[in-house]
Every structure is written in structure tokens, then in C-alpha cells.
Amino acid sequence: MSNILDTLKHISEEITNEADWGQPAQYIPELAEIDPAQLAISVCTADGKTHSTGQSDKPFSIQSVSKVFSLIAALGRTGDQLWTRVGCEPSGTSFDSIVLLESERGQPRNPFVNAGAIVTTDALLSGREPKMALAEILGLIRAMAEDDDIHINAEVAKSEQRTGERNKALAHYLASYGNLLNPPDLTLGTYFHQCAIEMTTVQLARAGRALAGLDGAPNILPALRARRLNALMMTCGHYDGSGDFAFKVGLPGKSGVGGGLLVIVPGRVSIAIWSPGLNKYGNSKAGTRAAARLSRSMGWSVF
Ligand code: DON
């Protein structure tokens, strides 16, 4: 497997030389000032080993990558009933769009756009205190990564709570259609805190093993559920950039505005990439290029 490491080093050098990083998320003040010229990649293989380049032990804000974990937790709690409240179709809209909610009577297209993730978190909350739902998500992530050193950055959560007018609008709009069962502020508080979870690329790659169905992965996800999650990540994981990601990378993935990417190579490896500058869709700019080159060099596309 030593050629994985050589490939990672080569890609990292190329991307660094190109210096085409994009800009970090500007609408979350705590993230806006991060130096975009950073790249970390970790690949976790079936034997549980990780191969990494860059600052793979530096925690970053996972943001929307958390939506994969909250979805797993919510499905564990409510089962397939969740699909009566949120769809599983690509939206073709930006992650924070409200536009389809009116014609589709408050049912978000999928659990990865913000509206769908807010409904998913609401289902997970189901009348409990936010700290209970957050403990459930954190516990799940720690179990999937087999690492307890994973935490929420309260400053990042507060920063978004102060400025997240769009998400507040989405939550209240969902509530107006009866698709929020908890008070909007409680659901939003939970959602902002789940987005503020920090992980390193090593931890995130390890957490992806169950999704990749790797032999040594903790037994957390039934195979059918993992397959469906991968299908959703492939079709919806990058919002209106999902087709572009599938075209260039050919793998299921989930992005976050913190610049993180979780990319799954079913049956083979789990990949985590972090580079905080974003492209026009709000996904990691250099990270997406790195994923495309890695998939191509290793022959990992599912197509
Ligand atoms: O709700 C938000 O806007 C952020 N907490 C998360 C959005 C996000 O990560 C979109 N992904 N690229």
C-alpha cells in the first residue's frame, strides 16, 4: 500500500504549487479568517491504518459533513419514517436555498441541504434536550472513529447562532408547514452545535470505514443503510455541485463549508480531505481537485 502515500504526497505537492485555494466561508465569522492555503488528506484502509499528508492531526470544523452522522443517528432512532418528512432527490439548489420548500409544501428534497438537515436533527431531537441529541451524535462519531477525542467548538456554534439568519428562516418556514416537531430555536441550537464538531482528517477517515463497509470497521451500520447513504452522498452530497463531483471524482462524498470532505470508496478505503478555501458551490476547492486526482490515480471511481 506504499503507493497510496506516494500518490498523496505527489497530489499534495501539485495542489500546493497551483496555489488555487478559494476563500474560506465568509458567513461564519469564526471560519472566515482561516488561512486557505492548507491541505490535509488521510486515507484509511481495511486494516484500519491511515496514510496521510499535511496537517492530518489538526482539528477542523466538519460543518455539513456532520449531516451524514446526524442522518445515521436519526435513522437509528426513527427508522425509515424519516423519509416521510424529507426526500432523497438531488435539489439542484445551493445548500441554504429556501426556494423549493414552498412548492413542495415544506418537505426538503434531501437530508443534506440545510432544510433537510434541520428536519433530520429535529427528528433526532424528538422532544429531548438538545444536549441529549448532541451526545448521541458525538457518541456515534466517536464510536465510528474509535476515538473519544472529538469535541464541539462552542465558539463556532455561537458564531453561527449569532449570524445564521438564513437557517433561522428555513427552520421557521419548515415549522409553518408542520415539519418541525420541536421549537425552532431548540432544533437550530442542536443543528449549529452539530455543525461545530471538530475532527482531524485521520479521525474523519476512520469514521468513514463503516460507510465503506471495511472489514475491520465497528459494526454500526447495516449494509443496506450504508449502501443507501452512499447513494445519497453521490447524488446530493455536494448540493448543486453533486453532478460535477460525481463526474470528476466518481465517488460518494459529503462536503462541509469548513473545507472538509468525506469520500467513500465502497469496499476499499475511506478518505478525508481538508482544505478550507471553497468553490462556488461552498465545497472545498482544492479538496475537490485532490479527490479527483486521488480517485483517478488509484483507479477508485465506482464507474
Ligand atoms: O448551516 C450552515 O450553513 C453551516 N453550518 C453548514 C453548511 C455547510 O457546511 C454547507 N456545505 N458545504
TrEMBL record:
GO molecular function: glutaminase activity
Superkingdom, natural source: Bacteria
UniProt keyword annotation of Aminoacyl-tRNA synthetase present: no
Name of the top EC class for this enzyme: hydrolase
Pfam families associated with the record: Glutaminase
The species this protein was found in: Primorskyibacter sedentarius
Gene Ontology terms describing biological process: glutamate biosynthetic process; L-glutamine catabolic process
Reactions catalysed according to its record: L-glutamine + H2O = L-glutamate + NH4(+)
InterPro entries (alphabetical): Beta-lactam/transpept-like, Glutaminase
Protein name: Glutaminase
